[in-house]
Amino acid sequence: MRFMFVGDSMTIGRAGDYTWRYRMWQHLNRSFGGPYRIVGPRTELYDTVAAAPVSTAYADPAFPDRARGHLAGWGEGWLHMAPLIKETVTATKADVLLVSLGLIDLGFYTNSSQTAENARRFIAEARAANSRVRAVVLPVIPNVRATADAPFAAECDRFNELLAKAVADLDSPSSPLLLASTPMSYDIHSDTYDGTHPGPSGEHKLAAAFADAMHQAWGVGDAYEPAAG
What we know:
By secondary structure, the protein is of the alpha/beta class.
């Protein structure tokens, strides 16, 4: 099985981060129970000094190159990934997409309705490349802007409703879709380093959201348990 992470700045991570991708790699190593690969055309972290995705400075240098693949970008959302996903799934032969997108769209590019349409386009394009592709999609999670900007918070809530509807509408036995649950205990003050981007505890909670969704719905792996350290 080939897994691919798709996301924005919370998924690509910055230089010095572990990333929730790393936490998921640890989880799959412990619990998947068979051969798997992590695939994707990109491997770098975002370097905030260079303002570009050019860093290889993961917090754990033992994180192997073969597990660093992703399709994530700082400042990229559904709007940016929908045109890329067909060619990327074709090239990587990805079977399972773990997707965390939406915050950047709503913050800078599109309203909730437009963002939901781009999510639907993304799913259609992924299926055009692999008619049996699976996807787990995370709603927009708590963030600092939503605490101070009521209209933005309302757009996040509305998008999450539209995303849930899209997943329900488009789910199929041959190409199943899952809506992961927002971690109930997610706290922007303790689980992020700036109110938006996950720190170590937030990384574990995001990885758990995806891992638990796959375990409960598809029997893939075990329930998430953080690795020691």
